[in-house]
């Protein structure tokens, strides 16, 4: 077990290192930060002075090492566009994205699970197949289209939900939450729904496949033979075993939702990490771009690692065999 | 019982009516306001926002003419010196009185800002003469300094000292956020309540404002909504009262919807195609077989004229810009100092004439070239470039459009400039025609601070010579004569192919009356809300 943990941590460090190099190289390629900051109006002398000030004259390995050592010391630098510390910006925006991703996950499970169970139990019936096919539409229609449709229906036509922003938030320590106010909750519904739609099909199909598998096993047959009610068999016996892989996949899904929240955030002007990233890209705000890329990678890696370790706890075969038997999809 | 209920309802109504005297305006735009420090950015949107809180030394009327503001009057007293008489009895938002020292302090602070070097780099010193007089001394004569001063923002010296923001917050500096980024102390019509760069900026009316306030807005919130469809939805659902960046494709929808109006005015910016005026070999330019040409065709005035006669700016304004643009015929626009309305006639679109000129120049079959085209930043650039390219194809000039995102395009210009043919927006900083010439049309010599933004390296010694005399001339009649001469010469030499001035378009709900201004500022003191 300890070997497994050590191995996973080592892998995580390698992944983060690679991402940090890529993030850094990318940020040197997307344009000239000095031109973005000062505009075309600045004199060459000002431009050169700022270049020197920001250390942009040094060769990139030198700059990368400086960047890395700053980051390791917890100094993420100052955002070029807003002139505020990057760490502060990220901390401000993080709760919004985590809440959005979390609620989207709840939505996707809340809808996907029942559909999957229904489709497994009533396999082959036209209604079950139809519902399952419908979820595919959710994967096929891009998130921003769904988002705009939602806004049109629920904000413009019906006037029920706010079309942008996060509503009123409550400050709890450094965390801001929209979950405690009516306007915060109302604001959360559409972005989370738009984000969740694409994940519903995944959950439903996974649950269905796992459940069909479980329903074929001997203990279910014995349960049936004992004359237990189908309801008990399905919901307490079969579902429990079905859920183990679903929990694993959900963890990874959370990573995806976190990373792909950017689309929903852009449409709904959600003040989260994705919005921060888009604004930074638009202004070649290199410190912010690098920080967000690294943070997203770290989030992914951390979620994967936790999922792997949890899996090892649940499945003893993994502990014996080291890291070879990684679960599908992880 | 019924009577009581009615009376109760009436009382409640009366109470809400009393509260409703707090008139709130919620307005939304596409880009965030970056900072509230007026000297730490020259960003267009951000300036329009902090102008509510900070007055400029010289004011701007709704049609962009100079008006007395914190300076009541100004005159040139010789020796490169302008004398400003400072208005008395003006209060900052903390109640303290604005003094000549505050003005001198602000001028000194802003002139050293790296964002304002092109405007105020020539200012040497601001000297307090007495309690109501400040002299501004430049390194050379500067006839258009008053116009530049409409972008000089006055900040409280005491407040800056107390909050450790005497120096402009420096980029890449270590440590915490400077106080002036999210706080402000100016004399403007609105007081800053809070500024959250990620989402919203809140204002409230300042009761002791020195000037009249024709509007009735007591509270205002600027919201940043980046996505166009969402911004429009927010307006239509009543979540915001005014949208300042209305996407072109949604104008019809807002206009036809009951309860909404659209306002428009030309922006202080014009689009133009620039052509290489210096290189012996134009970059990325060949004959139709891909062989290099003997010479740079763009250096030949006949070729430049041919392009001007071919690219139909009227058609681009009508089709690509959906009529939301004004065709430009000279290197100046209304609202700029030195604009000459009677000269503002664009080259006629005349393909036969263009073919003749090309034949005379030795290119009867045209040639092939590449047009660098900045995406984003300006409206519909991609379509403008494509339209121009297909028009040029009709006279045999084969144009490949090279679309580039703005940071990449900007890098190409500032690190080169490495472009022989491109589309770009002209935004002379001081809003005087003189600046169009000194900054964009004079032969490029950054060390002499001439033609700094002349990215296509146009060069005409006579224009250079006359522009230099313009910068030394204070007499108004002489200046007008020089403006006319220069604008005519530039058009004859086709310093660039002028296209159009895009419109600023606002959408607002009925009951909101917000006068639109070319610098895109919502002057909240002039807005009425019902």
**Percent of residues of chain A in beta strands?**
under 5%
How many structurally independent domains of chain A? Answer: 2
Give the oligomer, counting copies of the same chain as homo and different chains as hetero.
heterodimer
Helix percentage of chain A: over 70%
CATH architecture of the largest domain in chain A: Orthogonal Bundle
Biggest interface found: A-B, 56 and 52 residues
Looking at this structure, what is the CATH superfamily of the largest domain in chain A?
Answer: MetI-like
Radius of gyration of chain A: 24 Å
- Per DSSP, the total helix count of chain B is 16
Structural class of chain A: mainly alpha
Order of helices and strands of chain A: HHHHHHHEEHHHHHH
N- to C-terminal distance of chain B:
34 Å
Q: Which secondary structure elements does this structure contain, and how are they paired or packed?
A:
The complex is a heterodimer of chains A (330) and B (530).
Chain A: H1 2-29, H2 33-38, H3 44-53, H4 60-72, H5 86-121, H6 126-140, H7 143-157, E1 170-172, E2 175-177, H8 182-215, H9 218-225, H10 230-268, H11 273-282, H12 286-314, H13 316-321
Helix pairs in contact in A: 1-12, 5-6, 5-8, 5-10, 6-8, 7-8, 7-10, 8-10, 10-11, 10-12, 11-12
Chain B: H1 2-19, E1 24-29, H2 44-50, E2 58-60, E3 66-68, E4 71-76, E5 81-86, H3 100-111, H4 117-120, E6 123-130, E7 133-138, H5 145-148, H6 157-162, E8 190-196, E9 200-205, E10 219-224, H7 228-236, E11 242-243, H8 251-256, E12 260-266, E13 270-275, H9 301-310, H10 313-320, E14 325-327, H11 351-360, E15 368-374, H12 381-393, E16 398-404, H13 406-414, E17 421-426, H14 433-441, H15 461-472, H16 476-493, E18 497-498, E19 500-509, E20 512-513, E21 528-529
Parallel strand pairs in B: 1-10, 1-11, 15-16
Antiparallel strand pairs in B: 2-3, 4-5, 5-7, 6-7, 8-9, 9-10, 11-19, 12-19, 13-17, 13-18, 14-19, 20-21
Helix pairs in contact in B: 9-11, 14-15, 15-16
């Amino acid at each position: 077990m300890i070997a497994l943990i050590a191995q996973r941590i080592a892998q995580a460090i390698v992944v983060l290192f690679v991402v940090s190099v890529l993030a850094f190289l990318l940020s040197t390629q997307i344009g000239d930060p000095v031109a973005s900051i000062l505009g075309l109006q600045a004199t060459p002398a000002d431009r050169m002075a700022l270049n020197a000030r920001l250390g942009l004259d040094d060769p990139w390995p030198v700059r990368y090492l400086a960047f890395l050592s700053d980051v390791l010391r917890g100094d993420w630098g100052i955002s070029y566009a807003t002139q505020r510390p990057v760490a502060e910006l990220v901390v401000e925006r993080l709760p919004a994205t985590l809440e959005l991703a979390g609620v989207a996950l709840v939505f996707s499970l809340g809808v996907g699970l029942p559909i999957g169970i229904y489709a497994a139990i009533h396999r082959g019936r036209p209604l079950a197949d139809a519902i399952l096919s419908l979820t595919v539409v959710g994967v096929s229609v891009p998130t921003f289209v769904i988002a705009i449709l939602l806004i049109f229906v629920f904000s413009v036509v019906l006037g029920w939900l706010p079309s942008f922003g996060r509503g009123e938030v409550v400050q709890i320590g450094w965390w801001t939450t929209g979950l405690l106010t009516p306007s915060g909750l109302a604001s959360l519904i559409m972005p989370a729904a738009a984000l969740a739609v694409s994940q519903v099909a995944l959950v439903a199909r996974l649950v269905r496949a796992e459940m069909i598998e479980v329903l074929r096993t001997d203990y279910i047959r014995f349960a049936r033979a004992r004359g237990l009610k189908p309801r008990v068999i399905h919901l307490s016996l079969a579902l429990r075993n079905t859920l183990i892989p679903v929990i694993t996949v959900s963890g990874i899904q959370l990573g995806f939702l976190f990373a792909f929240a950017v689309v929903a955030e852009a449409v709904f002007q959600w003040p989260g990490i994705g919005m921060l990233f888009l604004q930074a890209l638009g202004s070649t705000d290199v410190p912010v771009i690098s920080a967000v890329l690294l943070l997203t990678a770290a989030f992914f890696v951390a979620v994967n690692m936790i999922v792997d370790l949890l899996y090892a706890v649940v499945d003893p075969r993994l502990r014996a065999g080291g890291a070879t038997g990684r679960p599908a999809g992880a | 019982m019924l009577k009581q209920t009615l009376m109760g309802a009436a009382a409640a109504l009366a109470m809400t009516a009393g509260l409703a005297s707090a008139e709130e305006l919620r307005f939304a735009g596409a880009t965030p306001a970056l900072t509230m420090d007026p000297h730490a950015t020259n960003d267009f949107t951000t300036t329009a926002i902090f102008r509510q809180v900070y007055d400029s030394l010289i004011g701007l009327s709704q049609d962009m003419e100079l008006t007395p503001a914190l300076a009541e009057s100004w005159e040139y007293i010789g020796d490169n010196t302008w004398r400003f008489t400072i208005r008395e009895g003006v209060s900052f938002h903390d109640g303290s009185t604005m003094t000549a020292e505050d003005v001198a302090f602000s001028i000194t602070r802003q002139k050293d800002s790296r964002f304002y070097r092109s405007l105020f780099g020539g200012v040497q010193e601001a000297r307090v003469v007495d309690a109501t007089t400040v002299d501004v001394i430049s390194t050379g004569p500067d006839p258009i300094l008053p116009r530049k001063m409409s972008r000089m923002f006055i900040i409280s010296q005491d407040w800056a000292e107390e909050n450790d923001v005497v120096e402009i917050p420096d980029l890449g500096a270590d440590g915490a956020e400077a106080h002036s980024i999210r706080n402000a102390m100016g004399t403007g019509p609105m007081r800053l309540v809070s500024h959250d760069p990620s989402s919203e900026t809140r204002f409230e009316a300042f009761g002791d404002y020195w000037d009249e306030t024709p509007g009735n807005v007591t509270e205002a919130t600027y919201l940043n909504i980046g996505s166009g469809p969402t911004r429009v939805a927010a307006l239509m659902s009543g979540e915001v009262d005014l949208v300042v960046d209305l996407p072109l494709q949604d104008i019809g929808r807002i206009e036809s919807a009951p309860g909404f109006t659209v306002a428009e005015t030309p922006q202080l910016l014009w689009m133009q195609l620039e052509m290489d005026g210096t290189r012996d070999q134009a970059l990325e330019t060949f004959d139709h077989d891909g062989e290099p040409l003997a010479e740079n065709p763009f250096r030949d005035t006949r070729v430049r004229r041919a392009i001007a006669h071919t690219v139909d700016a009227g058609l681009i304004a009508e089709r690509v810009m959906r009529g939301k643009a004004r065709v430009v015929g000279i290197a100046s626009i209304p609202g700029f100092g030195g604009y000459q309305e009677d000269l503002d006639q664009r080259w006629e679109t005349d393909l036969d004439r263009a073919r003749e000129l090309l034949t005379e120049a030795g290119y009867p079959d045209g040639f092939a070239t590449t047009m660098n085209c900045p995406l984003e930043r300006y409206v519909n650039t991609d379509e403008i470039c494509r339209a121009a390219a297909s028009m040029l194809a009709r006279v045999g000039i084969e144009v490949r459009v090279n679309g580039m995102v703005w940071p990449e395009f900007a890098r190409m210009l500032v690190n080169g400039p490495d472009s022989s043919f491109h589309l770009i927006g002209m935004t002379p900083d001081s809003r005087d025609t003189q600046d169009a010439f000194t900054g964009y049309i004079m032969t490029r010599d950054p060390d002499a601070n001439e033609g700094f933004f002349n990215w296509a390296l146009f060069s005409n010694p006579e224009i250079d010579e006359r522009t230099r005399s313009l910068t030394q001339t204070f007499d108004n009649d002489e200046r007008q004569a020089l403006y006319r001469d220069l604008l005519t010469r530039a058009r004859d030499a086709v310093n660039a192919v002028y296209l159009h001035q895009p419109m600023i378009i606002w959408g607002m709900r009925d009951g909101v009356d917000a006068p639109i201004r070319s610098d895109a500022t919502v002057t909240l003191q002039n807005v009425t809300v019902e």
